[in-house]
Amino acid sequence: MTRSILIFSTAFLAACASSQANLPGIDGDRGEIFAVAPEAPAEWAARGVAGTAPTGSWLTQFNDPIMVNLVQEALANSPTLESRAALVRAAKAATRTARSQRLPNVDASVSAGGTSNGFETASGIDRRTDSVYGLGVDASWEADLWNRLGRGVAASEADLAASEADLAAAELSVAAQTAIAWINLNAALAQENVALQTYEARDRVRILTERRFQRGLAQALDVRTARSALAGAEANIALRRQLSGEAARRLEILLGRYPATEIEAPAELPVLDVMQPEGNPMLLLARRPDIAGAEARLVAAGLRAEQARLAMLPSLRLTGSVSTSQADFADAIDPERIAARLVASLVQPLFTGGRLSAQRDAAIAQAEAAIANYASAALSAWGEVEDALAADTLLADQEDAQMRSLEEARLAEELAERQYTSGTITIFNLIDAQTRRLTAESNLVSARANRATNRISYHLALGGGLPVSAAANVSQASQ
Asked: Which Pfam families match (predicted)?
């Protein structure tokens, strides 16, 4: 009889599962929830060069040992990386939690208490207290009939992979930010030097003008103009020193130091070689950590969508308990007095108020959102590389033009100073010539700094590697 009931129940639950499997959004009716990445050409459009993915450290091209040391310091001391490493550990713990759901759950309990009863005697009300001791062990286990729990484990492992990819992306970002901050500090100090040169040039004009005025060769307007230009140069020095101090503090914060403006820099900018584009667009998707993280989240979302669907199917649970409750503790631990129970149940959700179907629909929608996020991340990654490639060519042309502009401006300034001394031009011509030279020098500093930071952004967009020693230090720190 019991066997017939079990067979009937199994057939009934299977029929219910079959009817729910045909609901919209399940199996054949749910549509395709995964999609391929957007199409990419075989070569970069900006330069038309295809090749293999770059290897080694991208910092070596700057030929700056100080930059390498600063990047290693930032990777070792960054609070951001410590936070990401902690999130990786949390994801590992979540994975262990998911795996534990496939194992039996066993609870043990020990209790001790008493009961007090009052009863009437000839002399009055008497009260009797009896001790009660109890022991119990409860166990439960769910058989993973449809691999629903297995999908949950796989989703947690995908979350772990995404968390590790986030850590790698953060390492690369911190390295790039530190290198860019070092470039910006040197550029700020170089601009401060230009401001000092401007002051010296203006001061020479003031001295020359005052001497000419004393000899009656210049007017008071010329003297006032020279002094005004000198005061403006002095104000520019204060501004440049403020900007260089801010750049130094930004770098010190990235290094994990107190922002005390104590870091020193040579105020020199790298002169870069022509960029050699490496890697084609499709290789980029296998190289960038943030793309790997988006892909892992896509996988996790798909697994959870499938897990939500499988939650609507029957589940097999085994439960067992061993317990005793005796007035004497010796009797409580007597094996002959222990009662045991073992139950196997096959459970099929019949009516949940739409909760399971809503959870399934939400999981599918989240998977579709993950697909869109992955496509968006891929397009953004390609766009960043194309922008950096195109910008490097234009910035190289700009740097070359600024160098020629500076050379011509220097010659024009020398000529203007000789002509002003001889009285053939006015002070306004001389100040204008000086301004062009100083502006050209400032623009050259900006062009070199922009090209260097763009080169760093290019390797960041490619997912370029870290120095070997720095990567090893970060790996040890995360572990």
From this structure: OEP
Listed in sequence order, the residues at least 6 apart from 194 whose beta carbon sits closer than 8 Å to its beta carbon are 240, 438, 441, 442, 445
What DSSP character marks residue 465?
B
Does some domain include residue 9? no
Residue type for 63, please? N
pLDDT digits (tens, 9 = 90+) for 340-367: 555 656 666 666 667 778 878 888 888 8
342/448 Cα distance (integer angstroms): 78
Phi/psi at 130 (5° precision): -115, 140
In three-state secondary structure terms, 276 is: coil
> How far, in Å, CA of 215 to CA of 221, rounded?
15
Other CB atoms closer than 10 Å to residue 39's CB: what's the count?
Answer: 7
Percentage of residues of the chain with pLDDT beyond 90: 34
Q: Are 407 and 379 in contact (CB under 8 A)?
A: no
Model confidence at 196: pLDDT above 90: yes
Token digits of residue 316: 């097999």
So what's the pLDDT on residue 34?
40
Q: What is the mean pLDDT of the segment spanning 8-30?
A: 33
Distance separating alpha carbons of residues 250 and 244, to the nearest angstrom: 10
Specify if 106 maps to a domain.
Answer: yes
pLDDT at 115: 65
Assess whether pLDDT exceeds 70 at residue 150: yes
Overall average pLDDT of the 66-78 stretch: 92
Q: What domain count does the chain have?
A: 1
User: Could you tell me if residue 25 is inside a domain?
Assistant: no
What CATH number has the domain bearing residue 313? 1.20.1600.10
In a domain, 18, yes or no: no
CA distances from 356 to 11, 115, 317, 345, 370 (A): 22, 45, 19, 20, 21
Got the DSSP string for 320-371?
A: EEEEEEESSHHHHT-GGG-EEEEEEEEE-----TTHHHHHHHHHHHHHHHHH
Full-model pTM? 0.75
SS3 of 40-60: the string is CCCCCCCCCCCCCCCCCEHHH
pLDDT digits (tens, 9 = 90+) for 92-125: 999 998 888 888 888 877 777 666 665 666 666 6
Q: What is the DSSP letter of 140?
A: E
CA-to-CA separations, 103 to 96, 100, 139, 201, 415, in angstroms, rounded: 11, 5, 11, 81, 88
